[in-house]
Design brief:
Oligomer: single chain
Order of helices and strands: HEHHEEHHHEEEEEHEHHEHEH
Distance between the termini: 28 Å
Radius of gyration: 21 Å
Largest sheet: 6 strands, mixed
Structural class: alpha+beta
Strand content: 15-25%
Length: 315
């Protein structure tokens, strides 16, 4: 899908598209950019030249990373590049700025894994004739809420990404929105399960209507859930596991389901959460039977994500 011409100005369209992707996703490898921006090119040399043009112009920088015995470059926008993208106004401004220290830091692998997850959706959307592009997911969008279990606190839910996907069957087009959490087996199962609590609490949170001081509002006026101000349907939560062998990840999925099933706070939640592995997502795609529901019967996973199209269309 072609992109409109955008910042940085004075550069080719591919360089401009790459700058947009780098602005949105902060740190992206050369091969990830190739798959997202120039998939129609068999080889990545043209994209590499465009990236080096960005670097020479002071819009981008890169560091090397060893992977599978080879060195690949990881790219990010400089302050000059970020300001150029923001000046055009096509993307939601982001305060975050990448640096060489951050690019080489402990969050490097997690950032790349989130990009890889989004790229899997993009590539399968192309194959299936659906719509999901390199800018159709946004990392770390804050969602504020309150939880009865923690009175007086304003809490913040920050998914690794919020991803939009247009599913098409004939003339029927359905917008699907997902909360995405990527787990590289760096946290305990208990900590991962605790994230489910945050999503469940956000699902239930309804801010109370404010009334002017000295006036009396309706005694029990119904409040609309906070998520409805953003989403027509509450996004399904996708947990994507990576960073270990398939056997270990399968055990981790089973442990997560067991812990969630024994948690009374989650037993009554309407949260829809599914878990899979990044390798399954990449090789088979999101609409194959790869998602296991975190809550409920495990034998319904073949219809779990497909049913999202029906529920979204009916909402």
């Amino acid at each position: 899908m072609p992109y409109p011409h955008s910042a940085p100005t004075g550069l080719g369209q591919v360089a401009q598209q790459a700058a947009q992707v780098l602005y949105q996703h902060r740190l992206v490898s050369t091969m990830q950019l190739h798959r997202l921006v120039t998939p129609h090119h068999t080889r990545s040399e043209f994209l590499r030249r465009q990236l080096h043009t960005l670097r020479q112009a002071g819009f981008a920088e890169a560091v090397g990373r060893r992977s599978a015995g080879q060195t690949q470059l990881l790219w990010w926008l400089t302050e000059k590049g970020a300001q150029s993208v923001e000046a055009v106004g096509l993307l939601q401004p982001r305060a975050y700025r990448m640096s060489q220290e951050a690019a080489l830091g402990p969050l490097q692998e997690h950032t790349l894994a989130v990009v890889e997850t989004g790229a899997a959706f993009v590539e399968h959307a192309r194959r299936l004739g659906h719509e999901c592009g390199p800018l159709d997911w946004s990392p770390e969008i804050a969602h504020y809420y309150r939880d009865e279990a923690r009175p007086g606190e304003e809490l913040c839910l920050v998914p690794d990404a919020v991803l939009n996907y247009v599913h098409s069957v004939g003339k029927q087009r359905t917008l699907l929105t997902f909360f995405v959490e990527v787990d590289r087996t760096q946290m305990t199962i208990a900590r991962l399960a605790q994230k489910l609590h945050a999503y469940a609490a956000y699902h239930e949170y309804a801010p109370q209507p404010q009334t002017a001081k000295g006036t009396r509002g309706p005694r029990r006026q119904a409040a609309m859930p906070a998520w409805r101000y953003r989403y027509p349907v509450f996004p399904r939560l996708l947990l994507v596991l990576t960073g270990a062998s398939e056997d270990r990840l399968a055990r981790r999925i089973a442990d997560l389901r067991s812990l969630a099933a024994s948690d009374p706070a989650l037993a009554s939640t309407a949260l829809r959460a599914g878990v899979t592995t990044l390798d399954q997502l990449r090789t088979r795609g999101p609409f194959e039977p790869i998602f296991t529901p975190v809550l409920g019967a495990a034998d319904i996973f073949d219809a779990w994500l497909r049913s999202a199209t029906a529920s979204s269309a009916a909402a």
